[in-house]
Write a structure and sequence with these properties.
This protein has about 190 residues and is α+β, with helices and mostly antiparallel strands. Helix content is about 30%, strand content about 25%.
Length: about 190
């Protein structure tokens, strides 16, 4: 069922669809180029970008029954994504089947946690309400999957992302995973 928020519609999408893959390529290109610009003063080498796109397992983790990819359309055109996936049992895992020492601080043993992934809006659609629309739809999807807590991680240089999360009730917390580029961790009770 599509959700209408201003000129945005947000609905589930197959995580391996051509629409999803095109948006993920745009996402990876932008976040990778930003990292390389900050740390090396250049854009991402093409081979590195291709390796990262191929290595991504989003098409698996954001697929039913334990995950969902949402695509936002602005004016009918695909313009953004958000994904959620349930974490191991009570959220004490990192989403890859491996537990970690930090998860216990994130959710009570009886609460199910979901992780927010790949919130992204194309540059030409930014400032039109896409971020909040995708975030609201992702929270609704996590609730529908049975989650009580939403967790996420982001990088410090992705200021637009963590600003969006903080404006929408997410609180900084201790790390819940060991992702190599994660620098800020957040949680929100759903």
């Amino acid at each position: 069922m599509a959700r209408m928020i201003s000129a945005w519609t947000v609905s589930p999408e197959a995580s391996d669809s051509s629409v999803a893959l095109a948006l993920w390529r745009a996402y990876y290109t932008e976040v990778s180029d930003r990292w390389f610009q900050v740390h090396e003063g250049r854009d991402t080498p093409v081979d590195d970008l291709e390796r990262e796109v191929v290595a991504s397992n989003d098409h698996v983790t954001l697929a039913p029954p334990a995950g969902m990819l949402l695509v936002g359309r602005y004016g009918g055109a695909p313009a953004g994504t958000a994904g959620v996936h349930l974490l191991n049992g009570n959220g004490n895992g990192n989403g890859n089947g491996n537990g970690n020492a930090h998860g216990a601080a994130q959710a009570e043993p009886t609460e199910l946690a979901a992780e927010l992934k790949r919130v992204f809006v194309l540059k030409e659609a930014r400032g039109t309400g896409g971020g909040p629309a995708l975030l609201t739809a992702a929270e609704d999807a996590a609730r529908a999957l049975g989650a009580h807590i939403m967790l996420l991680d982001t990088r410090s240089d992705l200021t637009e992302a963590w600003s969006l999360y903080e404006r929408n009730g997410y609180e900084r917390t201790v790390p819940h995973n060991h992702e190599p580029y994660a620098e800020r961790w957040y949680r929100k009770r759903l």
